[in-house]
């Protein structure tokens, strides 16, 4: 069963029962997923910036937006207006497809994966997760990789608190680390 249908048919009812929501509209839902890559040390290499752009486009299926520096910082050799990263905001069906790919394919392919940490919540039910290597995604073939960089995936939900956000992601199948002391 696709993730979106699973959410509508099973997860909404479970969350409504668990938290006592009076309306289906009050049940937490996925709002958007933002995939972000900071260029970091390789800012001076324009060829590498194009590589990051194409990799992010292949992973998300959407054209990335360049993030530019708001002000100059001499110690980092950054000037105002300089490209310092790329980001993609996914909504709708692309968001659900990416979430399904993240849960079922990308996270299990991460080296030494034992589950994602529960500490990635921001007190408002949103979750952020970092990848050290982008090669966990199926669109990337390891033989074409020149330089490995990380990326950050932020999942914004309509949940008001961390327990609601955790329950939503857990029911969607997010592989959180299991506590050993339970």
Account of the protein in words:
A five-stranded antiparallel beta sheet has the order 2-3-1-5-4. It has a single domain, classed as 2-Layer Sandwich (50s Ribosomal Protein L5, Chain: A). Helices cover 32% and strands 18% of the residues. The model has no long low-confidence stretch (mean pLDDT 83). It is globular. It has 182 residues and is of the alpha+beta class. The longest helix has 17 residues, at 3-19.
Structural class assignment: alpha+beta
Count of the domains: 1
Query: In the CATH classification, which architecture applies?
Result: 2-Layer Sandwich
How many beta-strand segments? 5
Radius of gyration, CA atoms, in whole angstroms: 18 Å
Approximately how much helix is present in the residues? 25-40%
Summary keywords:
alpha+beta; 182 residues; 5-stranded antiparallel beta sheet; 5 strands
């Amino acid at each position: 069963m696709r993730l979106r249908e699973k959410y509508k048919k099973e997860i909404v009812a479970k969350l409504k029962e668990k938290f006592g929501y009076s309306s289906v509209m009050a049940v937490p839902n996925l709002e958007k997923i933002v995939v972000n890559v900071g260029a970091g040390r390789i800012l001076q290499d324009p060829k590498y910036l194009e590589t990051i752009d194409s990799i992010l486009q292949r992973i998300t299926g959407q054209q990335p937006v360049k993030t530019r520096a708001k002000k100059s910082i001499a110690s980092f050799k950054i000037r105002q207006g300089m490209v310092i990263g790329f980001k993609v905001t996914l909504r709708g069906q692309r968001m659900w497809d990416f979430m399904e790919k993240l849960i079922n394919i990308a996270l299990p392919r991460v080296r030494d994966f034992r589950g994602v940490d529960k500490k990635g919540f921001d007190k408002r039910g949103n979750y952020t997760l970092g990848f050290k290597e982008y090669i966990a995604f199926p669109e990337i073939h390891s033989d074409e990789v020149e330089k490995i960089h990380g990326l950050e995936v932020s999942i914004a939900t309509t949940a008001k608190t961390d327990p609601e956000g955790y329950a939503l992601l857990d029911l969607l199948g997010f592989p959180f680390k299991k506590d050993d002391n339970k």
